[in-house]
Amino acid sequence: MSSSAGLVLIEIYTPVNQGPLRAAEIADKLDSYLAGKSLKTTSGGVTQFSDRSSLSYQGTDIDNASLVRSTVSIQFNHFGV
After folding, report:
1. pLDDT for residue 43
2. In which order are the strands placed within the sheet that holds 46-60?
3. What is the pLDDT of residue 7?
4. What angle do CA 77, 54, 1 make, to 5 degrees?
5. CB-CB contact of 78 with 45 (8 Å)
6. Would you give the distance in Å from CA 81 to the centre of its chain?
7. Phi, psi of 59 (to 5 degrees)
């Protein structure tokens, strides 16, 4: 049995006029799907996500000034065959 660990990064882009609230709402929704959960893989392994994620605000997107970029990160461990 092999194992590995890593970090999932999810970029969130929201309109500038919505401030950080919309990104936080999306991050909360992602937490409800991932944080503290275990997912079986098609190869018979299991991926376990940490029970905590973090949200960081990156600021205005360099390619589109009408968007703000935020990043959700969550650690995981994978155990496989």
Report:
1. 86
2. 2-15, 67-80, 46-60, 38-40
3. 97
4. 0
5. yes
6. 25
7. 100, -170
